[in-house]
Design a protein that fits this description.
Layout lengths: L1 H62 L2 H39 L13
């Protein structure tokens, strides 16, 4: 019976040792997964920054900076306003004359919706 008890004790000790090894293996696996996740996250961040830098270079090369775009819009607006002011100046007298002609030339007529009695 003592040998059987000793055999059981050995089995329990072996089972305990195996459980410890499994637990340690699980911990190592969890650490490796966490490390892999951190490395992947760092790679993703590095890739994102690289792509963002490439986009900014592309934007600066082909579109110019935002200040350049704003300046160009401002210049275009100024040119259009100047052209409109020139048109107003050249046609101002014609328009005033036409308005005065329409205001002073009154022809009394019944409106088409007015009832004739």
């Amino acid at each position: 019976m003592a040998s059987q008890s000793q055999g059981v004790q050995q089995l329990l000790a072996a089972e305990k040792k195996a459980a410890e090894k499994v637990a340690e293996a699980r911990k190592r696996k969890a650490r490796r997964l966490k490390q892999a996740k951190d490395e992947a996250q760092a790679d993703i961040e590095k890739f994102r920054q690289e792509r963002e830098r490439q986009f900014k270079d592309y934007e600066a090369k082909y579109l110019g900076s935002q200040d350049d775009v704003a300046l160009k819009i401002k210049q275009d607006t100024h040119i259009k306003i100047t052209a409109m002011n020139k048109q107003v100046a050249t046609r101002k007298d014609e328009v005033i004359e036409r308005i005065l002609q329409l205001v002073s030339d009154i022809r009394p007529e019944l409106h088409v919706n007015a009832k004739k009695e």
